[in-house]
Design a protein that fits this description.
The protein has about 600 residues and is an alpha+beta fold. It has 13 helices and 31 strands.
């Protein structure tokens, strides 16, 4: 095993699509960790979905041997991190496993929202930051401009920034040398008890839960009994090893090393990301700092399009939850949609990824309801209820006040888009605190927005306003009091629970009107007129009438007196009135699908 002074643990952090994964590929090639015949693009992105969307969803560690210019062979542990804001907790745990970070900046795009967020996370962990200006071979590259932004926005000296290109392999040796010379050797190795930080975990059908760990102090080997400090779970180690980049069994994991530990634990929820692993006899007193529980923020109902697929959906969600401890789910049923699950996600991208994986990996046709967040509802007796589903909301007469979660957003946009962006923020009930100028072209808006307002179309509209140049990063804010109401849609006097939503009272009428108009176009006509209404409490705030299908009762009546025709028409009128009282309107499945998928 290598001398601890020859180990370097580092990660690559960047905004989405600034070239982290491509750069990782070049580092693997340069250090000959992977033979050229096994090399493929985006090697560390294992999922098809990661390759397709060009994003990293799960972090992937890899150990590399590098012969430096000083003649010594170093063990470099690279921990690849997700770049999207939904996975910022995973990023923070990956950073806690390192002593240094390569901060990657696209030479043509410059500093963006998540560049700032990830750099701030790295500074909080006291990491050595190496600025790397990537994609310098592009015709639109402005490396000097990017360097200036690094100094102005991030306050990091950019004189020693490395100029590189992951695609063409420029500057790869310089990056490796910078890691060796500037990143300090592993910290906290002299702590008296054994400690390892779990920065990721996955479930394997044959081995059970596999924990990805960074060992800070002590050693871990097969046969040791370990204890998890946050959950208190105890287990015996069955196997330890390193990543190169596939799993490779080892005899022992020593201080400073990054590897995996297989235990007897079968439930991934017992192994929490950020937890500290220690020996059961002679445990550590203090865990590695920074652990917190990950809680879902966005909730949505997932239903199978074909009700016979319910068991298949149940099995699919259960398997995904085994690999992803952040996904929560409970069974629920809806009058309109049948049996399904109420699922909790970290954010919108997380929700999209899970739904896409259910469709692909388990071959399921699914329908998801309108996403919602957790509201705090205070009843008259001072009782607090957490509501994530409109159908669970107490009666309006019992509610004293409601609070909704907010986010603090940092939005990077071109200066020419400020007016339109401020209008969008205002429309979404947001408040812009201040505007910082990054350089002559770009500005950063700091604003507070209600979380439920950014759930559906905020990102798309921001991208269209800024012609694709806008980027956003956000963190959760506080709960604030808000005038929220439950909007119900009634068809022929009966509430349809699948269309219920919790909205701000100023938006209830416009949302209700839009839904009624869409339903009027989508619902099939009945033999009687059908009222489609939007209601808040007992008050109807919007209405559309679906015309009836006419039956020509006068067809058989030729000639004769007008009274004969009148008699037939009155009889029909009576029949329609009676039918309206007892008539049931069944809403076809495709109407739900079109409304919930925002088509029409």
């Amino acid at each position: 095993m290598p001398d601890i002074s020859l180990i370097r643990n580092f990660c690559i952090i960047a905004h989405v699509d600034h070239g982290k994964t491509t750069l990782s590929d070049r580092l693997l090639e340069q250090t000959q960790t992977v033979e050229l015949r096994q090399m493929k693009n985006q090697l560390l992105d294992a999922m098809d979905l990661e390759r397709e969307k060009g994003i990293t969803i799960k972090s992937h560690p890899v150990s590399m041997q590098y012969l430096a210019k000083d003649g010594k062979t170093y063990l470099l542990n690279l921990i690849d991190t997700p770049g999207h804001v939904d996975f910022s907790y995973e990023v923070s745990r990956s950073l806690a496993s390192c002593e240094g970070a390569c901060l990657l900046i696209d030479a043509s795009q410059g500093v963006e929202a998540q560049t700032v967020a990830n750099a701030t996370l790295a500074m909080q962990q006291n990491l050595e930051i190496i600025p790397v200006i990537n994609k310098v071979d592009l015709p639109s590259a402005q490396p000097d401009h990017a360097k200036k932004q690094v100094e102005d926005v991030l306050a990091i000296p950019a004189d020693d920034a490395v100029l590189a290109s992951g695609k063409s392999g420029i500057g790869i040796t310089e990056i490796l040398e910078a890691v060796v010379t500037r990143v300090p050797p592993p910290r906290w190795s002299d702590y008296p008890a054994a400690r390892a930080l779990i920065f990721d975990s996955k479930f394997d059908t044959y081995k059970g839960v596999i924990s990805y760990v960074r060992v800070f102090s002590g050693t871990f080997k097969a046969g040791d009994t370990i204890s998890l400090m946050a959950t208190g779970a105890k287990s015996q180690i069955k196997e330890v090893g390193i990543f190169s980049p596939k799993m490779k069994q080892a005899d022992v994991l020593e201080p400073g090393m990054v590897g995996y530990i297989v235990t007897n634990i079968r439930d991934v929820s017992e192994v929490k990301i950020g937890d500290t692993m220690t020996h059961a006899n002679g445990p550590a007193k203090d865990p590695v700092p920074g652990f917190k529980e990950v809680r879902p923020m966005v909730f949505s109902g997932i239903y199978p399009l074909d009700t016979t697929d319910y068991e298949k959906l149940k099995a699919g969600i259960a398997k995904l939850a085994i690999n992803d401890a952040a996904l929560t789910y409970v069974a629920e049923s809806s009058v309109a949609l049948g049996f399904g699950f109420r699922c909790g996600f970290l954010g919108l991208l997380h929700m999209e990824i899970i739904q896409e994986r259910l469709r692909r990996e388990y071959d399921l046709d699914i329908l998801s309801t309108y996403p919602s967040v957790i509201y705090k509802v205070y009843s008259n007796g001072g009782k607090l209820t957490y509501v994530d589903n409109p159908t669970l909301m107490p009666d309006a007469a019992e509610i004293e006040r409601m609070e909704e979660p907010t986010i603090r957003a940092h939005i990077h946009i071109p200066g020419t888009s400020i007016g339109d962006m401020l209008t969008l923020i205002q429309e979404k009930r947001g408040i812009c605190d201040h505007i910082d100028t990054i350089d002559e072209q770009r500005v950063m808006l700091s604003c507070v927005l209600p979380l439920n307002e950014i759930l559906v179309d905020f990102n798309d509209r921001m991208k269209s306003i800024t012609r694709g140049y806008g980027s956003m990063d956000y963190e959760l804010g506080d709960y604030v009091e808000s005038k929220l109401v439950k909007l119900d849609i009634l068809v022929n006097g009966e509430a349809v629970d699948a269309f219920s939503s919790i909205v701000h009272e100023t938006k209830a009428e416009s949302n209700g009107r839009k839904l009624c108009e869409r339903l009027k176009d989508l619902l099939p006509r009945q033999l009687f007129k059908v009222a489609i209404q939007a209601a808040v409490g007992g008050k109807i705030i919007a209405r559309e009438t679906l015309g009836s299908v006419g039956k020509d009762v006068l067809a058989k009546c030729y000639g004769g007196d007008i009274t004969r025709k009148r008699k037939l028409l009155d009889k029909q009128k009576e029949g329609k009135k009676r039918m309206k009282q007892i008539g049931k309107v069944s809403i076809p499945q495709d109407a739900f699908i079109k409304i919930l998928k925002n088509e029409g």
